């Protein structure tokens, strides 16, 4: 039923004719409203907002008299209500080493069966140096392996069992044999020098280029690449709030991802995601922000996209209510709960200029091109 009542009087008969000839265009121009009439304040009946879902007597009240009278909570895809409940920082530590140590003997035995005793002892020594806190430990090179399928098995083994290690395939100095190189992943457990080998000395291998360095080399390997947080704002547009935060962080507004914009004259809470930004940086802004708070931090694998929400929940306060009696208000509210309401577009959707945008749209739909252009370009009083 949306728009049905205001479209009928404006567009009937509805026609998608070809652009009119000159005589028809002249007649179309004649139907354009004179400037004095176009400047009249737009009222709900002018756009067809005239019907009600029930015949019950209603009541009147002031909406959004204060911005705090309109409270909006985003509803996430899983149905949870987005609220600002905590300013605590998430735990960014990796899994405890105790769990890794418990699986180490089993993992090394599996690796021995896959690659042999020599490579197993080389890996054992490498892990020992890592556990001693040597962040500059040099990569190890496994035995030459001409079987590509077997090399893939080895790469997969490290991905499953040693997520803090990275492997790639390199050529031996003879330029013929191919081997697997193993090194400590960039992040909290180690760092690389400019050669990517962990040592300033040449390795003796032909391929001394850095390992795959796509993305941030300093981002912890165990954290999701997106920081998700809840944005609470008062009497501010969503983009305005994000611009303020972005300016403080040195980020462009487009760095933020949201599921949808929220009202300006309101108190709203919604989810936002940022790519590879630590929660501590945002949390530090709370003492500097006015009318804006951020919290409920969490690291996730994917960022938000527009429309990725179930909806919004509104808590509305009406003021200056005019009704025959309190009982009449209760009856009207019960009728609203039972029958709902006609979901009209509000007056704000028709523009604030002296020529309402729906008149231009109606002329275009009728094929009255000259009339539409005149409505847009003709001189207006006070302009």
Automatic annotation (TrEMBL):
UniProt xrefs under InterPro entries: PsdUridine_synth_cat_dom_sf, PsdUridine_synth_TruD, PsdUridine_synth_TruD_CS, PsdUridine_synth_TruD_insert, TruD_catalytic
Pfam families on file: TruD (PF01142)
UniProt xrefs under SUPFAM superfamilies: Pseudouridine synthase (SSF55120)
Lineage: Eukaryota, Viridiplantae, Streptophyta, Embryophyta, Tracheophyta
Protein family per UniProt: Belongs to the pseudouridine synthase TruD family.
CDD domains, alphabetized: PseudoU_synth_ScPUS7
PROSITE patterns found in the cross-reference section: TRUD (PS50984), UPF0024 (PS01268)
Protein name, entry field: TRUD domain-containing protein
Keywords associated with the record: Isomerase, tRNA processing
BP terms from Gene Ontology: pseudouridine synthesis; tRNA processing
Organism in which the protein naturally occurs: Triticum turgidum subsp. durum
